[in-house]
């Protein structure tokens, strides 16, 4: 195996570990990323003329990295506690992963469609193993892998658990849903993985997943409708019978689980209703307090913000007082409305380019299917990030960098 192939394999391994084991096994990920960077440098020395990037993608990534660097310097000058801590995510990674996009080859999107099915299976399997380990089936060995970052809440008539990897289901739930609807064949893998994901979501009690899934489906339908206006001759075909079948199976499946007493239905109902409770729900009140503090901080410097790593008058974390769950509001607070609009334009650009991939007649079916599925998961993750800072962490940034690599590949080769 040559250096390039080995580096591509390592990148795939990092992606899998980030999806299945976020916030853990960090040492392994660092070693793998270091090896990939070493492979990149060797190829850059041996074959410099074959290292190609899209100029527009490089320029945009450089702008984002430059903003991150300048605002960290600005924050450091003001004595902000997290000014240097956010440098990696906001300044280094945008440029680094754009450069590593040289390892993306035409046809990788179609390959990733199959790989993501395996990743989804491994993700669900790992969560099943954790649940089994929580009941002592393996003596708690697998549970110990997560240490204190995993939580189990067990009562007489309910069982809830939380793992960092549950956040990956925010992406995969719509990914499987759309995959089943738009695949040219009746692929039972999608529906099985989707139903297993539903079970896991019910056992986590994570309210944001319900909301992000529903809103992502609405956003997805809206963006596809807009796409039909601009690309009326290349409309992806959705299977109406499959949609009705999937909805019927999902409803029947959930009712079956509740009737069997596998979960407390009153607890699930109260958990869902609490999404809109800003008077007594502790989690919502925390976000309300954060919002008020961030809003006050924004008003003091609307244009350029308080600098990277700044801490507002209220914070939930003593270890990281600059970190807030209201991610987009915190970006405005830290970087100002000016930089927020720059970041927003980058997201809109990625959505637009993914939409063009979906309606591009020259792409093969598997590549188009990956673009459809990924866009649905992309929307879901961005929506969930509004109340949880997912894309501000290394293990979830693949959500941004995969479409960046797709755009870079298409600009160079007209293929994804």
Automatic annotation (TrEMBL):
User: What UniProt keywords are attached to this protein's entry?
Assistant: Ligase, Membrane, Transmembrane, Transmembrane helix
Highest taxon of source: Bacteria
What InterPro entries does the database record attribute to this sequence?
O-antigen_ligase-rel_domated
Asked whether the UniProt record includes Ion transport among its keywords, one would answer: no
Keyword Transport found: no
Q: Where in the cell is it found?
A: Membrane
Entry GO MF terms:
ligase activity
Membrane-spanning intervals of the chain: 32-49, 56-74, 86-104, 116-138, 158-181, 188-205, 211-231, 243-262, 332-352, 372-390, 396-413
- Indicate the segments forming the O-antigen ligase-related domain, all copies: 192-322
Membrane protein topology class: Multi-pass membrane protein
Protein name as catalogued: O-antigen ligase family protein
Q: Which organism is it from?
A: Pelotalea chapellei
Taxonomy of origin reads: Bacteria, Pseudomonadati, Thermodesulfobacteriota, Desulfuromonadia, Geobacterales
């Amino acid at each position: 195996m040559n250096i390039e192939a080995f580096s591509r394999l390592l990148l795939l391994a990092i992606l899998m570990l980030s999806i299945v084991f976020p916030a853990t096994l960090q040492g392994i990920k660092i070693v793998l990323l270091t090896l990939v960077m070493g492979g990149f440098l060797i190829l850059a020395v041996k074959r410099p003329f074959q290292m190609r990037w899209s100029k527009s993608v490089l320029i945009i990534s450089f702008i984002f990295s430059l903003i991150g660097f300048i605002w960290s310097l600005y924050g450091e000058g003001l004595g902000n506690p997290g000014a240097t801590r956010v440098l990696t995510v906001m300044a280094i990674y945008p440029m680094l992963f754009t450069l590593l996009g040289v390892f993306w080859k035409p046809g990788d999107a179609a390959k990733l469609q199959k790989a993501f099915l395996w990743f989804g299976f491994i993700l669900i399997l790992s969560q099943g193993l954790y649940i089994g380990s929580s009941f002592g089936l393996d003596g708690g060995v697998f549970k110990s892998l997560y240490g204190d970052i995993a939580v189990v809440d067990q009562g007489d008539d309910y069982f809830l658990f939380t793992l960092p990897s549950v956040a990956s289901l925010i992406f995969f739930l719509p990914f499987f849903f759309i995959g089943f609807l738009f695949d040219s064949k009746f692929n039972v893998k999608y529906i099985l993985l989707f139903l297993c994901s539903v079970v896991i979501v019910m056992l986590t009690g994570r309210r944001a997943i319900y909301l992000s899934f529903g809103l992502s489906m609405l956003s997805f339908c809206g963006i596809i409708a807009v796409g039909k206006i601009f690309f009326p001759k290349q409309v992806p075909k959705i299977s109406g019978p499959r949609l009705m079948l999937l909805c019927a199976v999902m409803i029947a499946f959930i009712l079956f689980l509740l009737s069997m007493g596998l979960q407390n239905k009153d607890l699930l109902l109260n958990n869902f209703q609490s999404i809109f409770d800003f008077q007594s729900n502790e989690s919502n009140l925390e976000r309300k307090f954060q919002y008020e503090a961030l809003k006050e901080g924004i008003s003091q410097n609307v244009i350029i913000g308080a600098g990277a790593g700044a801490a507002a008058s209220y914070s939930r974390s003593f270890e990281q007082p600059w970190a807030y769950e209201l991610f987009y509001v915190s970006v405005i607070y830290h970087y100002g409305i000016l930089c927020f609009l720059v970041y927003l334009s980058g997201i809109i650009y990625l959505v637009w380019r993914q939409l063009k991939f979906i309606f591009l007649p020259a792409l093969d079916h598997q590549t188009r299917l990956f673009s459809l599925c990924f866009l649905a998961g992309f929307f879901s993750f961005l929506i969930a990030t509004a109340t949880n800072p997912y894309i501000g962490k290394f293990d979830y940034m693949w959500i941004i960098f995969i479409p960046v690599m797709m755009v870079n590949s298409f600009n160079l080769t007209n293929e994804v």
